[in-house]
Amino acid sequence: MMTTIVEKERTTESPVRVKEHAKSVYSTNQLNLWYGSNHALKNIDLDIKEHEVTAIIGPSGCGKSTYIKTLNRMVELVPSVKTSGEILYRDRNIFDSNYSVEELRTRVGMVFQKPNPFPKSIYDNVAYGPRIHGIRNKKILNEIVEKSLRGAAIWDEVKDRLHENAYGVSGGQQQRICIARALAIEPDVILMDEPTSALDPISTLKIEELVQELKKDYSIIIVTHNMQQAARISDKTAFFLNGEVVEFDHTDTIFSNPSDKRTEDYISGRFG
Amino acid sequence: MKYIEQDLVIQRMSGRKILNLIFKVLFLFATSLALLALAILLFRIVTQGAGHLSIDFIQNFASRFPEKAGIKAALVGSLWLMAVVAPTSIILGVGSAIYLEEYAKKNKVTTFIQVNISNLAGVPSVVFGLLGLTIFVRALALGNSILAAGFTMSLLILPVIIVASQEAIRSVPAELRDASYGMGATKWQTIVRIILPAAIPGILTGSILALSRAIGETAPLIVIGVPVIIQFLPSGVMDTFTALPMQIYDWSSRPQQEFQQVAAAGIIVLMAFLLFMNSIAVFIRNKFHKRY
């Protein structure tokens, strides 16, 4: 249903814009998910384009975190999860039995709600991904670490203390190290699950600016409980409620002219 | 209206305070009693055994004559025993813990296994001795060798090591696993690079405490038929041997009064051994202290 809105727009928009944003990274078709008997996601249809920031908003328990964790199949770490429907990542169904989760997660990086660096040095944190994927060459590793830390806008702050424990820096810096760690595997998509909810306003601002930078090279899907944040940084916004997608559209449209009454109530702060 | 009358509360305060004091004294008494018992034990052993403790005591083999009796064979035997027990029990124990925590599906079968492992930790050591006698000594025809005794002791402490390792693995924060899996790491890579390094202090502390228990156990050795009077050192794991607690048990059951002092000296050596192992555990715990 929601895809039809997007498709309709695609035909009405100027051809240049269509060309820019035509490619999908993720197409979700009739996705359902159950935790045991709890129906957490209901008939989700979403089409996520590359080089865009897609924000997912909604009240607590609406399924937004579950959905983003389904995109790299991290949700399956919870026992008794069942899914139906399909999610196409670059035209391949991620639930296919011959599509290994390791392969999928090599292309799709993730940043978590709470900064979760490993109890290792900053360098070893960022080099973790390349190392598990078989890169041993010290010179290449050095380059990847520097490039990733620069990409996450934290290089200047930590370049003199790369071999100190990552727990020694502030929470905001830890979160940017975690972003650098995700960049180090050179992913195609970056999933962010409320990446600023544990951070102070200044660190939040830095991460938001970073997201704007990153979308030039990556497609970003970000879950946030902060509507202003979604309005500031995203191109498209999906509003989730009780496990369903109520509305999915351009962020400006969602925030200025929502078509569903529930979306309007939520963004105007009447509930949630 | 007010529900709490401040004046009345203060009037009745003394009763609460007395009760508080009574319990404080009671708990202090309990602690003192335990410490007192330990102090008496130590005092008796040291006064009895210190006189017999000498370089000769460490260097001599067992003897009929108390003044010539030494602990060499038992000390070396216990070291040999540890050389078998430590690798066997730690490899099997940590392996089982990793399987149960990381690989096994949580269902009725694993719950059943889990309950039984915990129960095994409480089975008397003499029962493990009988098991060792049946399987290792007789069925596998290992005789009363270091290997047979070592395997029996490993079985005895295996449940403790498994449970301690499981606790250590479980205490590794889920966020670290998520971060590793989220980058496409396999389960094995995550275990080796993230989970084990974070869990190692807990695993080693638990393992060393379990090994300390194995060093002091006597019952399984008696059941297996480990001899006491040995005048040579073992040259391999298939040789027979004797161990510290066996030697102490033998000395303390002899009629001559002098042997009581020899036994006390043996106990001092055993306790020094235990203290040494426990301090290794403390050292490891501090050195690899968790940083998250």
TrEMBL record, chain B:
Encoding gene, per UniProt annotation: pstA
Matching Gene3D superfamilies: MetI-like
Every ABC transmembrane type-1 domain range: 75-280
The keyword Transport is assigned to this record: yes
Keyword field: Cell membrane, Membrane, Transmembrane, Transmembrane helix, Transport
Entry keyword annotation includes Lipid metabolism: no
Predominant location: membrane
Matches recorded under InterPro entries: MetI-like, MetI-like_sf, Phosphate_PstA
GO annotation terms (biological process): phosphate ion transmembrane transport
GO molecular function: phosphate transmembrane transporter activity
Name of the protein described by the UniProt record: Phosphate transport system permease protein PstA
Gene Ontology terms: cellular component: plasma membrane
Family: Belongs to the binding-protein-dependent transport system permease family. CysTW subfamily.
Topology of this chain in the membrane: Multi-pass membrane protein
Pfam families: BPD_transp_1 (PF00528)
Compartments reported by the entry: Cell membrane
Parts of the chain that traverse the membrane: 21-46, 79-100, 120-140, 190-215, 221-241, 262-284
